[in-house]
Amino acid sequence: MRSLNKEIIAVSVSGKKGERKHNVESISLREDFGIAGDAHAGSGRRQVSFLAEESIKKMRLKGLYVRPGDFAENITTRGVDLLKLKIGKRLKAGDGVIFEVSQIGKVCHARCDIYYQAGDCVMPREGVFARVLKGGTLKPGDTLEILKNAKRTKRATEWRRRTNRKI
Fold first, then answer.
1. Which SS3 state, helix, strand or coil, does residue 8 take?
2. Is the pLDDT at 156 greater than 60, yes or no?
3. Which of 72, 109, 156, 165 has CA 20 to 30 A from 64's CA?
4. Are 162 and 119 within 8 A, CB to CB?
């Protein structure tokens, strides 16, 4: 049987929205807020962003030199198919941090530098956003576990109803 434990390979933050994030040794996550010191933190639906290393490799195959954080993702993962996650799915990482998937992909209102370099960007299609349900600290090398049979929060259920998406 295959293990559901996966790995976090990078954690990244930025001081301003709209720029690449820089890798850091660890991040401190606060419940219903996001990452302390990151420009995207707040009480909204997209408190933390995830992107798989496998998605970054797709852009490298297009000839770009890109690394974790270059797509403005906070957490870069290895070995988990983020695109198979559903809204409301919960993830557990590091010292007990709990996330709830709140959005898959995003609309890019303004093209980023990566788009202009490659004519494409993976974050709008393959980025995953989540809310922090339980805070804590994360660092590269921490495991990421997909929790089975976790109850959806009322907020995820309401979002599903408003957008008519299946969870």
1. strand
2. no
3. 109
4. no
CATH topology of domain 5-163: M1 Pyruvate Kinase; Domain 3 (2.40.33)
Domain range summary for the chain, segments of one domain joined by +: 5-163
Range list of H helices, the chain: 53-60, 113-118, 123-126, 154-163
- Highest mean pLDDT among 39-53, 56-70, 131-145 belongs to 131-145
Region 25-45: what's the mean pLDDT? Answer: 95
> What pTM, to 2 d.p., does this model score?
0.84
Task: Check residue 82 and report its DSSP letter.
Answer: G
Pairing of strands 48-52, 128-134: antiparallel
Which residues does residue 34 pair with via DSSP β-bridges, in sequence order? Answer: 30
Q: Which two tokens stand for residue 45?
A: 């639906």
